[in-house]
Amino acid sequence: MQDLVAGARPRDMDDRPTREEAEAAVRTLLRYAGDDPAREGLRGTPDRVVRSFDEFFAGYGVDPEAMLARTFEETDGYDEMIVLKDIRLESRCEHHMLPIIGRAHVAYLPDRRVVGISKLARLVDAYAKRLQIQEKLTAQIANTLQDALNPRGAAVVIEAVHECMTTRGVHRPGVSMVTSRMLGAFRDDPRTRREFLAMIGNPPLGSAA
């Protein structure tokens, strides 16, 4: 994640508030919560919150498709499925800014070109480190993989817990959401789709993007 944080300034948000303005906004929220931002335990909180935002939302400063630009063709004709499973995922919901915590499974069927596996994990982070809904996050990862590599197919499954549902509102702990996006052979060929789902443990697909 460090490479996402470094210099992560949104490309289209040069007019965003200054750090000082952001810290002042945190103080306002602390007062709204009913506490005193000047008391000893909270004096450093605005700075810590703003620094946390730099990390939580570092994806705005990254071009996800550019991350997949470097590919390799020396594969000795390898054309079977490539799957990276159980990628730790941390995001924030765009409705309440509360955590979305889970894991992503990413796969593609290469057409001559492959990409370094770390780039798949970085691709997940690039979109997760933004304000999100899980359906859009799932589609963005799969669509970018398909557009950048032009494989015979791409697939993404995300399983995640939403704290906007478990810690507020309906208060339903233990509930997780599953979304999927299947493109190319993963959508058109049931056998390919079944093979992928078997590799990742056949999660119950609840909401397909």
Question: What spatial form do the alpha-carbon principal axes imply?
Answer: elongated
Q: Which residues sit in consecutive blocks of at least 5 with pLDDT less than 50?
A: 5-11
Binned, the helix content reads: 25-40%
Give the number of helices.
9
Which value, in Å, is the CA radius of gyration? 20 Å
Helix and strand run: HHHHEEHEHEHEHHE
Total number of strands: 6
By helix and strand content, what is the structural category? alpha/beta
The spatial strand order of the largest sheet comes to 3-1-2-4-5-6
> What does the largest sheet look like?
6 strands, mixed
Strand content: 15-25%
How many angstroms separate the termini?
Answer: 26 Å
Topology:
Elements: H1 2-5, H2 19-33, H3 45-56, H4 64-67, E1 82-93, E2 99-109, H5 117-128, E3 131-132, H6 134-149, E4 153-162, H7 163-166, E5 177-184, H8 185-188, H9 190-199, E6 207-208
Parallel strand pairs: 1-3, 5-6
Antiparallel strand pairs: 1-2, 2-4, 4-5
What does this structure look like?
A hairpin with a 5-residue loop joins strand 1 and strand 2 (99-109). It is built from 9 helices and 6 strands, in the order ααααββαβαβαβααβ. It has a 6-stranded mixed β-sheet, sandwiched between helices. Helices cover 39% and strands 22% of the residues. It has helices at residues 2-5, 19-33, 45-56, 64-67, 117-128, 134-149, 163-166, 185-188, 190-199, and strands at 82-93, 99-109, 131-132, 153-162, 177-184, 207-208. It is α/β, with parallel strands linked by helices and 209 residues long. The protein starts with a helix and ends with a strand. Helix 5 runs antiparallel to helix 6. 30% of the residues are buried.
